[in-house]
Write a structure and sequence with these properties.
186 residues; Nucleoside Triphosphate Pyrophosphohydrolase
Length: 186
Amino acid sequence: MRTPVELVHELVRDIEPLDELEAEHRRDALQWLESTDDIYRRIKPAVPPRHLVSYVTVVDRSDRSSLLVDHILAGLWLPPGGHVDPDEHPAVTADREAREELGIEPVLAADRPAFVTCTRTRTFGADPGHTDVSLWYVLAGIRDMPITIDPREFTEARWWSHDEVHTTDPSRFDPHYQRFLTKIGT
């Protein structure tokens, strides 16, 4: 029987990188997974200082758009998502986060992540910054689907056309979002 870390290692190993940066993030994540048996955030905000996150990227392929949330703490437009709970499968996290943060019944496009990133977060309050190893799951969505955002985490949610994301100042988004859109080919 595989341990949760072995399962995550397999998920990351099977991601085909888009470019050299994703290949570097994949190598970094695999080395981390081979060096520890504790990949989950145990104490907010940053213990341990590197931990596993699942993003749930809601994509409407029919009009080439995606749903992003204006994250209060990060000050960025991000896909919804959150920290993977101990021994939780990252796809289950993506499903749970979609329910909690958007109030929707999610339909994951695949049970495997499409993208992997290792991102150093900005510091907030007592958080000296930490590294999120993020697995990006794609969720099938429709622009007019009803959503209910969590107002404790987000100021708003909106659909962004993928052309709009590519022509907007990238510093307004997760630093890897434009590359993610390129990878999924929408």
